[in-house]
Each structure stands twice: as structure tokens, then as C-alpha cells.
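ok trying this again, last paste got cut off
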Amino acid sequence: MTGVARAFGSTVALSSVDFEVAPGEVHALLGENGAGKTTLVRILAGLDRPDAGSVSVYGQPVRRFAARDLRGAGVAMVQQHFTLVPTLTAGENLALARPEGRIRPRAKAARERVERLADRYGLAIRADVPAGQLSVGEQQRLELIRALDADARLLILDEPTAVLVDAEAERLLSVCRRLAEEGRAVVIITHRLGEVFTGCDRVTVLRRGQVALGGTPVRDHDRAGLARLMVGASPADAPPAPPATQPPIPAPTRARSLERLRVDGVSRGRLDGFDLAVAGGEIVGMAGVDGNGQADLEALLAGLAAATAGTLTLDGEPLPVGDPRRRVRAGVAYIPSDRYRHALAGPMSLADNLELGRGHRVRPARRRRDRLLAPVLRRWDVRTAGPAARASTLSGGNAQKLVLARELAGEPRLVVAAYPTRGLDPDAARMISERIVKAAAAGAAVVWFGAELDELFAVADRIVVLATGHAAGPFEPPYDRAAIGLAMAGGHR
């Protein structure tokens, strides 16, 4: 891949990136969230196309970027999020990816096809069980078997171990080594530096869409050096990072009150015995590479899920679970990571969305209600046709401002902000950041999940890193970017 560039609107994902992978090697591709790793390999797999640059596979230039064509050239990709059909068995999922003349294969033939590949590569799997009933590790192995079934010469694995326990991750890495020994090329996107040193030959690091380190032997580096490259503390020969798109948000002086939120020994999903305490008036930033328990913690704090172990309390009382109205009454404001899926009802009006969980059982007349809510929209600079407009018509920034207008109404005791500025333009991001900081200044305990360290450095009083479901830190100002980057890569707890 030479001079590859890709932009999405005004967001530059890749800028003149060179990337080379050789047969017989396992090549690690590193970078923090948003560095451009997934965009790069999606182009290589034909799932996206570059705006500029060239790609060749085994000496043949790629003329048409289509998944079918790249798969025919020997490229297969196991994506970070599973693409299995949950109601189909392992064999049926294989047949769906590579049909052999029948829409639905015979059960015996499908089972034998899975078992043949599973035996060859040591990837144990229950062939007759629907994919949705398989364990996470089995689903990951099935995704890999689907790629191997296509006899891929170049195999791309996007965060393959993010959802696996250590033993399963080690087994997967051993399979990758075996594939390399067979002469295949393997690319692994990972956030676990330990895997780089135990299972990879060369390493490339992307930083904000540019190459910070290009394909050098892993043995020439150490964990701390790679971590510095990932998060921007680069040596002199690395390309300079572009300026942040969002200027720092100066946090006002906040008088901290007594502890408000306490999380004791909580386990669920990826979380294992997680502890956290947040005082009123304090913002605790949650950093870490996606897939390390952030989604589980978000769901627990928002009352969307119950812990399998441990307790969560707000001002000494248990956090409500499973009842949004109780959450609202308890003073918990929730800004979810997916605003369209978990915060807004697109077909409903803006006025209806502002009242979700807070409206009266007997609503006032529409005109009167719209007249009351119109100033709220103006105060939050939600640019729209008016309270009667549908939420689905809003842009990303206006949709997020609508969510905050509802969630920060009154004086919340706890604010759960999951990537609140993701995908927003600088002005909207700054406004939203300032409003959350203001809520903390009014006495709320804030847990801020962030994808960008620069943003967390600007707003957080402390930063906790989630790595493999455990907490590292807390880190306090002045923040040590290299130490935090090392923790994000699993360097210590």
C-alpha cells in the first residue's frame, strides 16, 4: 500500500500511508482509537476504497476495490465485530460465506467441512450449534475458520483477542504463527503490547492517520517506546502529529464534595472486580482501547444491566437497574455512546424526545408544550425547524445537543458521559464539553468515557485506564502520556 489517503467529509482518516506485509510473517498494526488502523485494512480487504494512493497484492495492482475481488486475490479479513448469522450453525455460516451450489447445505456436509478445518488448525468448535449460542471464543474461532476456508494467502485480523481471555488469545496467536510458517502473511491489529512481543515479527504504528513507525522488527523496540509512539510522544524522526481539532476546555475551579459514586468489586462481561470512587464536583476520565470493558461499565452505570458481582451506589443508595424513570428520579444523567440507538427515538418529535422519562402522564396541548420547550432548544443551540420536527432529521451535533438538553436538565447527581463529542465538529464538541464541565462544577460526579487522550487531559481531574477489564491508575495531572499509553496497551495495572 503506497501513499494511501482516505477522508470522510472533513475528517482525515489516512494521510499518505505506506504499508507493506510479507509472506511468512505476522505483522502487528498498532495505534490508539481513531488512528486509522481499521480504515487501512478495510481498504486492503476491499470493504472501502482509497481517495488516493495504490494497493497491490502479490505483485498485482488492485484496480477495483470490492470484497469479492480481493477475496479472490487471496485476502480475507476477520472484522472486530462478528459478522456471523446467529441462527445458523457453524457449517451453515461457512457455506454462506463460500456457497457450493446449494442455498442451504446438507447438515452432514456442513459439519464435516467445519470439523476438517478445526482439526487442521486446532480450533475447537461445536459445528452443529447455532452461532448465537456459541461462546465468544468459539465465535472468534469460527470467524477465523471462515477466513481460512477461503484459503487466504493474506489474513487480516482486526482486534481478534479483544473479547478473548488470555488462554484463548495465546491459542489464537499460535495459530497465526503456524499460518505464517505455511507462507501466509498475517496482519494483526491489537492493543495488547504483550501479544506484539510474543507473537509478531514486524510492527507498524499509525498516529492520527499517519505512519509513526513503518514496519520495523519487533525486537528493535520495547513496550514503553511503542506506547509512546501510539499516543503521540514520538521520537524526533517520527512525523509530527497534526494539531488537535478541539482546543482544550479549561476546567473551572470545582469544589469537590464528599464521595457520590462508589463501585465496589464489580464484575460483568469484561469487567472483573472493578473499583471506582467519584466525588461530587469531580470528573474522572475513563481511557482505554475499545473492548476492554467500557461498554460493560457504561451499561452498569446507566442502569441498563446488573452486575454479576459487586455493588454500585450513588450517595449511599443502590444505583437503579432496569427502570429509566427510576434512573431519572435518582438524578443520573446518561449520555450514551450511541445516541441514535440508546438516546433518541427518531420518528418522535424533538419535544417528545425532551420528555422521555420525564414527561407527565397527562401532557399539555401540543402548541402550549412546543411554546414551553422552544426556549430550551434555543438555549442549547439545537438548529431545527422547531419542537415538532422529528429527531431523525437532526445532524449529529444537533442530536447530541438535544440529548444533553434533556439529560442535564435540573441538577443531576451523576453524569455518565460516553464519548460525548464523538463525530462532532469542533464548535459543537466544545459546547458540549463545557456544559458537562459546568454540571460537574454544580456538584455532579462525572464519569467521562473518552477516545482521545487530549480531550481527557483537558477536562478530567483524574484518569483511570481500563485494560482487559481491570483498572490501571488513577493518573493525576500533570498527566504522563507515555505511562497512560503503556497502561492502555496492558503494560501494567
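PB: full thing came through this time. Residues 234-248 have pLDDT under 50 and may be disordered.
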